[in-house]
Amino acid sequence: MTQVIVTVMPKQGVLDPQGQAVAGALGQLGFDGVGEVRIGKRIELAIAGDDPAGQARAMCEQLLANALIEDYSVEVAG
Amino acid sequence: MSTTVAVLRFPGSLDHDSAARAVEGLGATAVEAWHADAELPEGTDAVLLPGGFSYGDHLRCGAIASRAPIMDAVRRHAEAGGRVVGICNGFQVLCEAGLLPGALRRNATLSFVCRQMDLEVADADTPWTSGLESGSVVSIPIKNNEGAWYGDPASTRVVLRYRDNLLGSTDAVAGVANEAGNVMGLMPHPEEACDALLGSTDGQLVLAGLIA
Amino acid sequence: MSAAASDVPLHRQLGLTDDEAALIPELLGRAPTDPELVMFSLMWSEHCSYKHSKPLLKGFPTSSPRVLQGPGENAGVVDVGDGIAVALKIESHNHPSAVEPFEGAATGVGGIVRDIIAMGARPIALLDSLRFGELTSARSRHLFTRSVAGIGHYGNCIGVPTVGGEVSFDDRYEESCLVNAMCVGVLGPGGILRAAAQGPGNALVLFGNRTGRDGIGGASVLASAELDEGEDKRPSVQVSDPFTERKLMDCCLELAEGGTLVALQDLGAAGLTSAASEMAAKGGVGLDIDLDLVPLRETLAPAEILVSESQERMLAVVLPEKLDAMIAVCRRWDLDATAIGTVTAGENLVARSGGEVVVDLPARLLADDAPVYDVPRVPAPASPPLDPAAIPEPGDLAGAWADLLARPNIASKRWIYERYDHLVGANTIRRPGGDAAVVRLPGSDKAIALTTDCAERHCEIDPRGGGRASVLEAARNLACVGARPIAATDCLNFPNPEKGSTGWRLAEAIAGMAEALTALDVPVVSGNVSLYNESATRSILPTPVVGMMGLLERADSSVGHAFAHPGDVVLLVGDDGVLDASEYAALPGGFLPDIDVSREVAAIEVVLRAAEEGILRSAHDVSDGGLAVALAESAMAGGVGARIAVDPGRRDDEVLFGEGGGRMLVSVAGDAEAERLTALAAGAVRVRRLGEVGGDAVAIAIGPRSVALAIERAREAYERGLPEALA
Asked: How far apart are CA B27 and CA B32, in angstroms?
């Protein structure tokens, strides 16, 4: 089993109201140096076989990410 | 012979009973279509995807439901010109399934919103708005967490718009149809507006589109 | 820290008193095993055993011709006619909500819903009664917003409409917030399911979520002695899973409808221990459980399995020949279902692990035999009347009126209820924002009305009076929507009953509630007690919350609080109010006159009869903020004002904002209806003609003086209040 990390983020340019809200809250807590905040998902998968990255990309295309509004990246853990 | 409306049910569907009652109130016969089945019930004339939290809204609203076995049958029905309406979570499922354009995202308020809404008819030429005039207003409630439609309104058949766009939908879009008009999705709940005792009967005008 | 290494005796670490710990071996005839000791510590806790409140709760009236199930089961059930039975219960989840408000409130909703499901009923409505510190406190803002988010998260996802409730903010709750959740359900064709296990040889089936470390407190003391050092032994916060609860609900209803189950119990506080011991004790049978068969999320010691509070789990007894059918239904709903034991003859609860018996004792020792304590009854000294000089009379009465409308305790609660799905099911006839919610009973012409109420400031001053007032306010709220009160459920939230005058207040509040309930002929069919709501420095106000249900024979006959037409006659039913204990005065203490229960019940009957005769255009309970606020609320709701004249009292602000007097503000079409209302009062209840509906303001003449508040100004303040306090 290979550990694969999938990160799904809102596409650049798509409004992220959640990220905006968090940026505002951080500012209120006194963190003045915070610019843009974007919030996504990290999905950890244990994948069998010899092409875990390819499998994970297919999973992203078919289910884990919505191509209209999300980008994804796949990282095979060491 | 009355119209047979297949009301889909996924784990987590919530508004299937009220939708069934609403279509029966219009003289149709409602039958349940289980998510795991390969075919729609025999004699299905039209399909309704009800509201709810299918699969708990996990991953993305409607994402898992849109990949359910029954959705292949729904797709074939739609491609053959059959009528399909998706309400709230049902709308989310249709977008995830690629049967309607766009995607539904988190409300701009970052909260669940349950409120009666005034909707303007943008396209009176669909089966879902045939009893209405363009620009007229109907009163139907919303109740959702992720109701902000995101897409390209210029290339979309927009059917209904919010008067008050507190959800942050692109172009205040509340409901859209496919190019042919036989598939429609809307975030507001017409089945909650089919009884004067509940405040409005405007929902009947939209659901009438299910009946040939 | 392992049990062996500490100097504190194990039983004290678990929360048992020395006397209780000494009693256990006497009852058992031997020393308890460690798992047994943990089970005693939980089952004999206040929350599970009601050891301080049981003797007092006997004072409630609990029967009426409608009662099909009184206190003692997972929920009470009443007959509403036409073959329809309704289950109801309210429960607290205060302490968990103070620790983690989102999950605490969410799991509170989950727990009360399962209590209704366990009766074989389909949940059709939720209400929540909430108390927090003032919203000027960041902590209270956090607890409040997160609790509302948690309630919405759970209720919305399971598809049960949250149709009503209440919230108030007082400094006394700053360190001990209150989250009480009420659920109402409709019995199905399968009838009432009860918890009593029956039939030696029958299977005991655990279904729903897997069992993990959720909510394990004291038992973790034992776990350290039994698990490897590398494992994470920290008890976890209970995390809600409403999606699984929805599946569980659909599954249980299918099982109930099919008559598949002999008995059903939900797993709540003290998990498997509580569910199994109660099922066995109620049925007068034994249960033999193999803990190795319990589906687990992670490695757990036997004692932990027994007391885990993992959510979304149910326990059922089923005939062996129906076991396969039951598991098939659970599989269809994608739920784990495992036969973990059997019903036995005898009376013992037996649990095995790794082939060895780790628990073997009579179930009733856990479920029924906790020692019972009498609370000390030390009356609190009466507080003197408020010094009028302490409340300066405002020069600008209209400004004071608008300010009052913007106070969080009075202002519009839209911020809350728009976050709740209050419509799902398409049966909500009267939405949140009025005196009571009205929900149509599915497949029927009837409807029920629901409210939760408590007069905590009154209870602090005069607990007996406050008990009466809490019940009467609930009854008024139901009468004002045209519903006849038929059943109640109660949640008694109090501090430590062994300290100070709390025991006395608890006893007095119950006595006052009982008096009013008896006069109304409304039985208590279920309820909950939550004690020890306090910190080292501050204790809560005595808060006996009343959840009450009323019946409308015709769903289309409900009444709202909105003024309807210019020219309608406005009348006030009831007596006068006072500034003491009012929201306007905002001062603790004061003197409140005795409540004449029969007089207030008679007033409620007048309004109810008027509603039933169809002569009311509107009706509104006069409570927080007094007459002026009630008038403003009716005007805002209807979009039309009123021209009112009242007699002067001691002070103008007392006439406008004083509270009490058992008042209801009504409007009728004209003189004929006004005379009919007066005739119904038959001189036993005061009915005063105040004026007429009309105009775009509420204008009140108090003798020669007058004050007016434009509806738009009122609305601006009313809608701004809560969002502004949260910003």
From this structure: 16
Q: How far is CA C386 from the centre of its chain?
A: 31
Does residue C666 sit in helix, strand or coil? strand
Q: What's the complex ipTM?
A: 0.97
CATH superfamily of C10-53+191-367: PurM-like C-terminal domain (3.90.650.10)
Parent domain of B89: 4-210
- CA angle C213-C218-C222, nearest 5°? 80
- Are C159 and B198 within 8 A, CB to CB? no
Tokens representing residue C450 in the block: 């629901």
Q: Are the C-beta atoms of C298 and C213 separated by less than 8 Å?
A: yes
Which amino acid, residue C699?
A
Q: Which chains touch A (3 or more CB pairs under 8 A)?
A: B
Q: From the list B60, B151, B168, which residue is nearest A17 (CB)? A: B168
Report the chain B residue with the minimal C-alpha distance to residue A63.
B63
> Can you read off the two tokens belonging to residue C380?
């609190």
C559-727 folds as Phosphoribosyl-aminoimidazole Synthetase; Chain A, domain 2 (3.90.650)
Cβ separation of B113 and C428 shorter than 8 Å?
no
Strand, helix or coil for residue C605: helix
Q: How far is A18 from chain B (nearest CA, A)?
A: 7
**Domain-wise residue ranges, chain C:** 10-53+191-367, 559-727
Please indicate whether chains A and C are in contact, defined as at least 3 beta carbon pairs under 8 Å.
no
Query: Left (φ > 0), alpha (ψ -120 to 50) or beta: where does C415 sit?
Result: alpha
Q: CB C247 to CB B12 under 8 A?
A: yes
Q: What residues of chain B lie within 8 A of the CB of C418, using their CB?
A: 111-115
Chain B interface includes C426 (CB < 8 A): yes
Closest alpha carbon to C296 in C327, C336, C356: C336
B124 interface with A at CB cutoff 8 Å = no
pLDDT in tens, C42-95: 999 988 999 999 999 999 999 999 999 999 999 999 999 999 999 999 999 999
* Residue C620 falls in the annotated catalytic set: no
Residues B95-144: pLDDT tens digits? 999 999 999 999 999 999 999 999 999 999 999 999 899 999 999 999 99
